[in-house]
Design goal:
InterPro entries: Fcf1/UTP23, PIN-like_dom_sf, UTP23_sensor
Strand content: 5-15%
Family: Belongs to the UTP23/FCF1 family. UTP23 subfamily.
Mean pLDDT: 78
Protein name: UTP23 protein
Keywords: Nucleus, Ribosome biogenesis, rRNA processing
Function: Involved in rRNA-processing and ribosome biogenesis.
Structural class: mainly alpha
């Protein structure tokens, strides 16, 4: 109701938005006698863990940031005529993670595990040193060295002069052998 009152007070500029909002079911809020702003009303409805499992659809970045700080509240917004469901906030992810771990191991068992670890001396001590992580290093220093020139001894000739290359002789086909092949192709 607070959102509808706010849309009425804004006038003709948001008349279309008011018509769309009136089509949906109107939830009763705690401030029906003295209405507050729409964003404040929506925030008050999702307090205490969002018991009615509301989704918040808004283009207001300030409201979206406040909603992301609460766990378990899905956020919708519109991008180019498409409704987009925003990814879960870090607060929601942490809340779900905590719920899952609580379901796996009950609280009294966690306490008994801690006590058993302390008795056996397996509990982590605060003064315990942590291992340093290996960090990625630079390139191999040996691969960065300049190539060394080969040393030539005084009594020997350089390697290029020492080896003599043989020239490959071409086998030329005699003209007589080529002529019968050409005649066969023409026929």
């Amino acid at each position: 109701r607070c959102v509808l009152k706010e849309l009425e007070s804004l006038g003709k500029a948001l008349y279309g938005a008011k018509l769309i909002a009136q089509r949906f079911q109107v939830r009763n809020c705690s401030h029906h006698k003295d209405p507050v702003s729409g964003s404040a009303c929506l925030l008050s409805m999702i307090e205490e863990g969002n018991p009615h499992h509301f989704f918040i659809a808004t283009q207001d970045q300030d409201l979206a940031n406040k909603v992301k700080k609460k766990a378990g509240v899905p956020l919708l917004f519109i991008i180019q005529n498409t409704m987009v469901l925003d990814k879960p906030s870090p607060k929601s992810l942490a809340f779900v993670q905590k719920l899952q771990t609580d379901q796996l191991v009950p609280e009294h068992q966690k306490q008994s595990i801690v006590q058993l670890k302390e008795r056996e001396g397996l509990a982590k001590q605060e003064g315990e040193k942590r291992r340093k992580r290996k960090r990625a290093g630079g390139p191999n220093p040996l691969s960065c060295l300049k190539k060394k020139k080969k040393k030539t001894q005084e009594g020997q000739e350089p390697a290029a002069e020492k080896k003599k290359r043989r020239k490959r002789k071409r086998n030329r086909i005699k003209a007589e052998a080529v002529q019968p092949v050409q005649k066969n192709e023409e026929e």
